[in-house]
Design brief:
The chain is α/β, with parallel strands linked by helices. It folds into 2 domains: about 1-170 and about 220-280, Inosine-uridine Nucleoside N-ribohydrolase, Chain A; about 175-215, no CATH class. It contains 12 helices and 12 strands. It has helices at about 15-25, 45-55, 85-90, 110-120, 145, 150-155, 165-175, 180-185, 190-205, 205-215, 225-230, 270-280, and strands at about 1-5, 30-35, 65, 100-105, 125-130, 160-165, 175, 220, 235-240, 245, 250-255, 260-265. The strands form 3 sheets. Strands 3-2-1-4-5-6-12-9 form an 8-stranded mixed β-sheet, with helices on both faces. Strands 7-8 form a two-stranded antiparallel ribbon.
Amino acid sequence: MDVLLSTDVGAEIDDQWAIAHLALSPRVNLLGIVTTHTPYLTAQSSAEIAQEVLNHLPLREKPPVVPGSSTPLESADKPQQNEGIAFILETARCYSPEKPLTLLTIGAATDAASALLLDPSIAQRVRMVSMAFHSVQNGGREFNVQNDPKAWQVILETSVPLTIGSAEMCIRYLTLSRERAKELFGGISQAADYLVGLLEWWFAEHSDTCRAVTGKEDAWPIWDETVTAHLLGLTEVEVLPRPRLLDNLDLEFRSGEDTIRWIKAVHSDALWSDLIALLRW
C-alpha cells in the first residue's frame, strides 16, 4: 500500500508513534513525510523532529522528509505553494482511481487542501485517511482542524474519498497509561524505549493537560495511530453524508449521495501487538 504522510510531528508525542509504526510496517510503503505547522511549530522544525524519529528506527532506507506549509490557508480559494505540496502533487499524479495513493493527514490539512486546489483532479487519484475533528456532534473543535479550518472546508467540498478518526473515538480506544505502555513496550528495543520515553516526558511536562483529556495525569491518547489502525484493517467504520464545515466549526450534514467514513472503533489490542512485533529487532 503506497502512502504519503502529512504530520505536525513535535506538537505532541503521538505523531512519533504513528511514524514509527508506518515506517516499520511491511504492509505500508511509506513514500514520504510532508511536515506542517502548529501555532508554535514551523514545518521546518517539524521536519527536523521527523528525521530524529526515523533515526531511532532500524530502517535500511528512510523515506524522504519534505517541509510543507508553516501557516494555515488565508482563504479557501488561495492555495499555498511549497516543496511539500509539490511533492504531494508530483507523487499523486502517478496514481489512478483504480490504484489510488493513500494520503494520511495527522496534523493541519493545509498541504492536502492546497494540493487539491492546485490540481482538483487528484481527488480522483488519492484517498485520504485523517485524524481530525472532535466528533460528529462537536465538529471541528479539535486541534488539527482548528489549526486550519479553511483547509477542511476545502477538502470537504471536494469528492476526495475520506475516512476520519475523531478525537472522541481516539480517547476511547487509543489511550495508553504509563503502566500499560511500560507493560507492552518497555525493554523491547531501543526504538521502543524511545517511544515510551517520549510518553514519560509528556506525562512529566503536561500532567494537567493529560488530566483534562483523560482524567489521569499519566494517561494520554496516541491519537494518530488511528490512521495506522485503519490501514491495517483494525477499525470499524460508519458511513455518513459528506458534511460542510461551517465557520463556527459545526458540521452541517447535507443530503445527497456523497459520503465519508468515520472510524467508530479501533481494535487497539491488535494494533499494539502489531507494533510490538515490529519493534522487536
